[in-house]
């Protein structure tokens, strides 16, 4: 099955008359002009119950770091700002900024709270969580031009991996994959093996991110073979997990894991992402663009 090449659609926002309105700070004005200002909606617990498991993928518009991005950076806690600014390359700053902002934008919108009041913490293994709402689970991944956000009412994990043709896939498989997975990969020719490898790796990493273990939890501790893009069920350390790969991003592997079954179908995930984006409108100035599914795209 071929991956679906998705066109880039810039997300734009702004007021009808271009004015900031009275009594608003420059930061508030920028957020409003970028479509970021939260609006009153139901509480996150109610809204999340209708989502169950969702997937949002955004494509970075890699433009020079400017005032808009610097202004958005100021909405984050000081430690997050310092972490992002440690990157020297604009592309790395973009990825890190987008990953830090996306869950905060979601929560800000749902709870009608200013972005600066959304406090996200990290667990012992570094997995982010929102302590004010334990029913909200989310996870982030970024690679190349893309940032992915998984969210749900059960623990979730997501992984996006850029395919790098120069890597020795067989050597990496021998080091990190089970014998069964290595034998399965050996059935395919070089080009297909590379594609299958990245899809398999992203499934395995998404599960270890959902558990909070990370790669240290052992990529070879379970088998995640899947044909095409079917949802699979895995028992890992006595708990059931559900995984699915997505073919939507050309040149990337993308996988979602959840503690609850019924993950979005491959094209459904992108359609839902588009609707979800339209709902919360998390435009990050010119930073983020949303991949859209072509009208004639067929499900695998």
From TrEMBL:
Residues 70-150 form the 4'-phosphopantetheinyl transferase N-terminal domain. Gene3D superfamilies: 4'-phosphopantetheinyl transferase domain (3.90.470.20). One of its GO terms (cellular component) is cytosol. One of its GO terms (biological process) is lysine biosynthetic process via aminoadipic acid. Residues 1-39 are annotated as: Disordered. It holds the Pfam family ACPS. The keyword Glycoprotein does not apply. Keywords: Transferase. Residues 155-255 form the 4'-phosphopantetheinyl transferase domain. SUPFAM superfamilies: 4'-phosphopantetheinyl transferase. One of its GO terms (molecular function) is holo-[acyl-carrier-protein] synthase activity. Belongs to the P-Pant transferase superfamily. Gsp/Sfp/HetI/AcpT family. This is 4'-phosphopantetheinyl transferase superfamily protein. It comes from Lamprobacter modestohalophilus.
């Amino acid at each position: 099955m071929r991956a679906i090449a998705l066109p880039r659609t810039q997300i734009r926002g702004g007021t009808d008359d271009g004015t900031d309105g009275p009594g608003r700070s420059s930061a508030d004005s920028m957020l409003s002009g970028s479509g970021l200002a939260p609006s009153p909606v139901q509480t996150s617990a109610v809204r999340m119950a209708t989502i169950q498991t969702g997937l949002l993928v955004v494509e970075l518009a890699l433009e020079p770091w400017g005032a808009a991005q610097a202004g958005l950076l100021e909405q984050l806690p000081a430690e997050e700002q310092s972490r992002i600014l440690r990157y020297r390359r604009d592309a790395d700053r973009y990825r890190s900024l987008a990953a830090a902002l996306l869950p905060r934008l979601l929560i800000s919108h749902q709870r009608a709270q200013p972005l600066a009041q959304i406090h996200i913490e990290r667990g012992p293994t570094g997995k982010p969580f929102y302590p004010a709402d334990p029913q909200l689970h989310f996870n982030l991944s970024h690679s190349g031009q893309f940032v992915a956000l998984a969210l749900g009412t059960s623990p979730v994990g997501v992984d996006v991996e850029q395919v790098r043709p120069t890597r020795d896939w067989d050597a990496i498989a021998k080091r990190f994959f089970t014998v069964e997975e290595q034998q399965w990969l050996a059935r395919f020719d070089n080009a297909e093996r590379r594609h299958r490898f990245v899809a398999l790796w992203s499934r395995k990493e998404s599960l270890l991110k959902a558990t909070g273990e990370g790669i240290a939890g052992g990529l070879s501790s379970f088998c995640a073979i899947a044909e095409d893009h079917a949802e699979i069920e895995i028992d890992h350390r006595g708990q059931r997990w559900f995984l699915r790969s997505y073919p939507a991003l050309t040149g990337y592997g993308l996988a979602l894991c959840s503690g609850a079954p019924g993950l979005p179908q491959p094209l459904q995930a992108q359609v839902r992402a588009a609707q979800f984006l339209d709902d919360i409108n998390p435009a990050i100035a010119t930073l983020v663009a949303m991949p859209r599914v072509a009208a004639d795209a067929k499900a695998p």
